[in-house]
Amino acid sequence: MAKPAKKLVIITEKILLKKVAQIIEESGASGYTVLETGGKGSRNVRSSGQPSVSDTKANVKFEVLTPDRDLAEKIADQIGMQFFLDFAGMIYICDAEVLYGQSFCGPEGC
Amino acid sequence: MAKPAKKLVIITEKILLKKVAQIIEESGASGYTVLETGGKGSRNVRSSGQPSVSDTKANVKFEVLTPDRDLAEKIADQIGMQFFLDFAGMIYICDAEVLYGQSFCGPEGC
Amino acid sequence: MAKPAKKLVIITEKILLKKVAQIIEESGASGYTVLETGGKGSRNVRSSGQPSVSDTKANVKFEVLTPDRDLAEKIADQIGMQFFLDFAGMIYICDAEVLYGQSFCGPEGC
Amino acid sequence: MDFLGNFFMDFVKQLQSPTLSFLIGGMVIAALGSQLEIPEAICKIIIFMLLTKIGLTGGMAIRNSNLTEMVLPVIFSVALGILIVFIARYTLARMPRVKVVDALATGGLFGAVSGSTMAAALTILEEQNIRFEAWAGALYPFMDIPALVTAIVVANIYLNKQKLKEAAYAGEMESLSKQPVAAGDYSENYPRSRQEYLSKRNRSVNPRVKIWPIVKESLQGPALSAMLLGIALGIFARPDSVYKSFYDPLFRGLLSILMLVMGMEAWSRLGELRKVAQWYVVYSVVAPFVHGLIAFGLGLIAHYTTGFSLGGVVVLAVIAASSSDISGPPTLRAGIPSANPSAYIGASTAIGTPVAIGLCIPFFLGLAQTFGAH
Amino acid sequence: MDFLGNFFMDFVKQLQSPTLSFLIGGMVIAALGSQLEIPEAICKIIIFMLLTKIGLTGGMAIRNSNLTEMVLPVIFSVALGILIVFIARYTLARMPRVKVVDALATGGLFGAVSGSTMAAALTILEEQNIRFEAWAGALYPFMDIPALVTAIVVANIYLNKQKLKEAAYAGEMESLSKQPVAAGDYSENYPRSRQEYLSKRNRSVNPRVKIWPIVKESLQGPALSAMLLGIALGIFARPDSVYKSFYDPLFRGLLSILMLVMGMEAWSRLGELRKVAQWYVVYSVVAPFVHGLIAFGLGLIAHYTTGFSLGGVVVLAVIAASSSDISGPPTLRAGIPSANPSAYIGASTAIGTPVAIGLCIPFFLGLAQTFGAH
Amino acid sequence: MDFLGNFFMDFVKQLQSPTLSFLIGGMVIAALGSQLEIPEAICKIIIFMLLTKIGLTGGMAIRNSNLTEMVLPVIFSVALGILIVFIARYTLARMPRVKVVDALATGGLFGAVSGSTMAAALTILEEQNIRFEAWAGALYPFMDIPALVTAIVVANIYLNKQKLKEAAYAGEMESLSKQPVAAGDYSENYPRSRQEYLSKRNRSVNPRVKIWPIVKESLQGPALSAMLLGIALGIFARPDSVYKSFYDPLFRGLLSILMLVMGMEAWSRLGELRKVAQWYVVYSVVAPFVHGLIAFGLGLIAHYTTGFSLGGVVVLAVIAASSSDISGPPTLRAGIPSANPSAYIGASTAIGTPVAIGLCIPFFLGLAQTFGAH
Ligand SMILES: Nc1ncnc2c1ncn2[C@@H]1O[C@H](COP(=O)(O)O)[C@@H](O)[C@H]1O
Ligand SMILES: Nc1ncnc2c1ncn2[C@@H]1O[C@H](COP(=O)(O)O)[C@@H](O)[C@H]1O
Ligand SMILES: Nc1ncnc2c1ncn2[C@@H]1O[C@H](COP(=O)(O)O)[C@@H](O)[C@H]1O
Ligand code: NA
Ligand code: NA
Ligand code: NA
User: How far apart are CA E130 and CA E369, in angstroms?
Assistant: First the structure.
């Protein structure tokens, strides 16, 4: 029953949580998983003034499984374009195979 | 020293944390890593009545590295069968290579 | 614009957070993402005496995207050598393609 | 008339009480899209402290009070817990577009007790200087657990009956399952055929529900174990100093924060309710009053026979009217996995609790006062 | 002389006050590399309780006080919020190596109000038994929001003007972008050409800023909505019991913890400042005094015309001197994405806040006392 | 007889004290599998407040007390911290199946001080109205740090000695390492040959331990820096108002919650102990009494020579009997990486702390009272 899929990973500033989530939802992806992460990069700014306890919470990481690469790139482009000039962030994709996921459809359809 | 392996990822409701952990332990996997995540899917129910602060905590995500695909699928099937009719959840696998992990044995043995 | 890359994943005890981060930074990697995780393995010790609330916080997981395998292995070796005799930990790598990441350079340069 | 008059006055007054006003405030700011967040860690410790305090009060009271006067209220509590589930079974479950298991889970949640609602009632009674037995809070588990157990047991008996038909039906579905429709409306009940097939197999395994594990799980839940801890310490230890210097003085303030959270939570859950049948809304508004009135009646019996105070009667009525919002849901989710949590949690948290706190507490208080007047 | 004399005495005394000493303590232990951590959940609930308490005080005061005497201070607050941004526009923004948008964002942050600084001022005024209008805290939003709105609007107008030149410049860059340099210093402004190219396209879309969303967002922020909730409850409900038993008595203690956090945070942010132009340091030290003095002057007008208390004048001066450290930054980050947060957050948190709390509060207090003496 | 009599009475009475009863309660509910959780954020802030309060008390006391009377107790504290490690070296380390480094780490942890145990002792002394020097709590670091330093230094000297043999032994292992056995029991000490080989190389690098970093790290730990902050503020600032309104009144209540956590934690750690040699159990039960008695003896010397109060003697005995549960473990984990944390943390948290709080405090209190009687 395994369905080949692409795993799209988006790491960016926590402050963009809602905006990125919305883009993913509108993109037609069947869902997403989001985690709080910390990290360091070229910019790594802490965009909130919140007294920052542990810096392991400054970023969010989205994982989106998409049936094909096109959808993944579409989402990536939208987010990259819109935010990554001004906000810290990174996007990459990996290969994956979905074993269970009722909301999920592989390229060859459900 | 790299050992080819499968990375099995299980995302489901937090309430199943202990049950899923037990299945993995009994399956003979050498270990697992678990994270608190949030997410959205076809069902995305919040199964706890706990005043939900940040929805980035409603789910758990298990990552299990297995020496071969069979073990991964065995675990996936057990969990998928037992829970995914009634609980939100998704399972997928990726390829990986283990560099260090004293508890870990690749297909060609330790 | 996708750039082939290696995703290096390091899971170890929270107490090593700073030391591992330093090794990665000095290694020349362009950045890293770190998460709090829990887990179970062959040793799984809780090295802090902190009253442990949820064991989903006892470990940390680093994800480092590197342009090539060599850098990944270099980091892995340093960490594995230095800590994994005495501390719980695991290291593995996966393939990935970076779509956006201003700090990131793939093998064929920026 | 006179009754209605001062009842209305009381009602407005009580909406201004810290407890209720914070609840309303929470709903309002949530409705206005406030980004305010009370961290989960804070909610947890507040619940711990409230229930420990209630437990301590109860325990220290039990220490020096004859237990015989507790007998009747306890019996009534157990009876109510069970009764409420069956009320749901024969009312809500009969409604169109309401699945039986969902109705039973909802009944279980409304039969169970909300620690925060009870805390609110106790506080308001104190504010009004209305006497009630200090051990009244200890009635909680005696209504909570029977309700949850009954709901889970009845639901599983029902489900086992359904097995055969379902299995057959699943057979038909299998052939269709390749077609898009399978991913559509029914998909929650009938997902991909292989999973369905195998699942059915492994489902038909567990034949009968065991009661003890459910009881054990509820007793081990954070809310109840905090309360039982408090009771035990109240009876066997001498916690008076920390009680006076810590748990008691902070009680009202912490409650006000929790009320705020409850209000915000209620609003944020309203959305989930829209997805389910309208009847859940009707039930969540009516049931608290019905349950409360039955409890009030039984309470009066205890009042006239064994001298159960009128304040105690109000407490009994309110815990019957209340619906569990923190400890109940996980228990039900685990006990009746196939029930749709959006239905029962939505009904309880989004409507049941606000109604119980905002309307039932003032109502039963007014009722008791008019009885007290005669 | 006499002024300087007792002013200096006051100053030292106030550094010993719990509020300031915890602030200094925080900076010291952070400088010594202490691993001490105050969990984020605790910071959040402290901020909630402080601002709710301030709101409650204000609300209960407003309930029974004629609003006419609030008019002038409110007008002055709004004026100050706007003025401060323009001050930054024509001073800081003119400095070498200071980007205009960064300067505007900084001005917005210094025009906005720091809840913790205000709380510190109110506490110290109480400790010194200096009378001030209980509603003084309610001036917060009237300065905070105009400042943020002005900064964001002015910045975006400026940016839209820049569009054309930039686009052209980007054109040139494109050809170079294959070369390593593109990844170098300029990369924040001019990243990989394709992204740049597309981004420009989709950037030039939003032409003009809408004000209401910004106002709404600030009002919905955790700090302000806690305060407004408090005000509303203070006016419409009877929260006196929880106020007396919970919010008021815990106020100072919780503030001391928050001061500690502010101190630690200030130190940890100093690093970020090094990355930006020195002028931010100069600005962050001077601006609080300038803003405060202007406010003090306006306050005196209100003092002599509508009898605004001298304590109230100090509060006005301090909130003008303060720079937002919790609610402001996210609003600005969203409203002026291209501004560099290290610049404005660093300036505000690392220097602005310590200066405002540690120097401005004692200074304006001394000032007021000398005025009071005459 | 008379002694035993009232000692036993005291003992039972004290088990009923809030402090101890919550500790026992925690163990009981953990044993009963309660799902109750006190969030980590809460534990952290409680520890912060307890130690800050103890620090403040000490600091304010030191301000107006001649320091000469502190000299002897301080010297004894340092001596005890060092002595306790060597006791472990020549008793526990000699036992079968006990690795020397594990024994040294355990000794270090039992020589170090538990903030919660000390807080419990101070509270109980107050409850019993037994006088003690307000600065007694300030003895903490003088025993804590020497113990940790000694343990780490001695352990590393020992390890460096072992290097050669080990390296040789590793050589033999290498050949075997391809075989399954290598993954088996020994694997913790001798993992995959390549890793082993390289590790040995890079291990043999660090030849001698530096003491200052260890001292620095302990001083920077959350517990100690909170306490030192409190002391500093107590001496140099005027924190009296927040002390009276916040840190002092909340002390006992917060302690009761922490005791609950300690109890739960103790139970949950028992499992880890099973994995290690039985001797750790024996040690954890006996050592606290031995250490406490030595300290009690030394304390009496100070009592008769420099008039150290009997209450102070009890405090000295209890901090000697206590074993660090929060700040010590990370320091040791980093300082002696090859020591098995399950051994020393298990011994300290699962048995050492409950014994120290539940048995040693009442015991030394009773002892002091009988001395006081004469
Ligand atoms: N090489 C990398 N490997 C893993 N994560 C990275 C890497 N570079 C950047 N990141 C993540 O992306 C975020 C933004 O990166 P940047 O935009 O370069 O500041 C960082 O905070 C990290 O969490
Ligand atoms: N397409 C997806 N990509 C990533 N995560 C997903 C996706 N679909 C579902 N999930 C995760 O799986 C959980 C359960 O999904 P569902 O069963 O469809 O509600 C969601 O809460 C998400 O965390
Ligand atoms: N097979 C595995 N799959 C995923 N994570 C693992 C696995 N084995 C170990 N881990 C992770 O690595 C950590 C240390 O493992 P160990 O050194 O074997 O105790 C564990 O706490 C887990 O988080
Ligand atoms: Na009920
Ligand atoms: Na300002
Ligand atoms: Na000790």
Answer: 9
